[in-house]
TrEMBL record:
Role: Virulence factor required for growth in low Mg(2+) medium and for intramacrophage survival. May be involved in regulating membrane potential by activating Na(+)/K(+)-ATPase.
Subcellular location field: Cell inner membrane; Cell membrane
Coiled-coil segments: none
Name assigned to this protein: Protein MgtC
Ranges that cross the membrane: 6-22, 34-56, 62-79
Keywords: Cell inner membrane, Cell membrane, Membrane, Transmembrane, Transmembrane helix
Similarity field: Belongs to the MgtC/SapB family.
Organism expressing this protein natively: Caballeronia novacaledonica
Region of interest (Disordered), residue spans: 211-235
Pfam families: MgtC (PF02308), MgtC_SapB_C (PF21770)
Membrane topology: Multi-pass membrane protein
Ranges where the MgtC-like C-terminal domain occurs: 147-225
Length: 235
């Protein structure tokens, strides 16, 4: 039994090292040591169930607890930064590493090696496929972006500027979200009118044309626009 146990643990260690090396080379949050520990730990827990003679039901129950425990580890590597979520791929790799360790712990070496190969292929080969897809023209992407158009002009022309913006939005047409005004502390007094629109980035030229035309209107001192974070369009 000791030789069999050592073989299973070594298999889990080797598979964890193979997966962890790829993560470490890419300088991910969970690298060589973390991945190897997850695979080896999963193997040890499952092997414990087999050594205590609890049968298939006991091993299955322990494997379920392993999956729950790895879920907490995966949650720790997922981070949200400026509207984007990072670390999901690393968390998924941890989860798969635990599955590989469970397979090794139950003596299913062939499926464990196959699982390791799939994880490595996903993180290497499919990485390039993902990059190629992301490099496709943005016009084919199902996304939406929020833009903020800011117009500064004379206070006495506030109604004129707001009317220009409203008419321009209808003429394009653009998805008009909001229109606000606020005083600008300057001499002579100025007003800042801000319009928020949501549209596909491929329609950005419409916003540029609208800003160009409005810059020549009476009472407009300056006009500018900026795009915010890209969002996935709702289904």
């Amino acid at each position: 039994m000791s030789v069999d146990f050592a073989l299973r643990l070594f298999a889990a260690f080797a598979c964890g090292v193979a997966i962890g090396l790829e993560r470490q080379l890419r300088q991910r949050t969970a690298g060589l040591r973390t991945i190897t520990l997850v695979a080896s730990g999963a193997c040890l827990f499952v092997t414990l169930g087999m050594l205590t003679g609890n049968g298939v039901a006991g091993v299955t129950q322990i494997a379920a607890y392993v999956v729950s425990g790895v879920g907490f580890l995966g949650g720790g590597v997922i981070m949200r930064d400026k509207g984007s979520i990072q670390g999901i791929n690393t968390a998924a790799t941890l989860w798969c590493s635990a599955a590989v360790g469970v397979l090794c712990g139950t003596g299913h070496y062939g499926p464990a090696i196959a699982g390791t190969g799939v994880v490595l292929a996903t993180n290497t080969l499919l990485r390039e496929v993902s990059r190629a897809i992301n490099a496709t023209p943005v016009s084919s992407a199902d996304i939406v972006r929020e833009y903020v158009l800011t117009v500064i002009g004379r206070q006495e022309d506030e109604i004129h500027i707001r009317t220009l913006l409203s008419n321009a939005m209808d003429a394009q047409p653009l998805s008009f979200q909001s229109l606000t005004s606020e005083d600008v502390d300057s001499e002579p007094p100025r007003i800042k009118v801000t319009a928020t629109v949501r549209m596909h980035p491929k329609d950005q030229a419409k916003l540029e044309r609208m800003a160009s035309r409005m810059s020549m209107e009476r009472g407009v001192s300056s006009i500018s626009w900026a795009g915010k974070d890209v969002e996935t369009a709702p289904e």
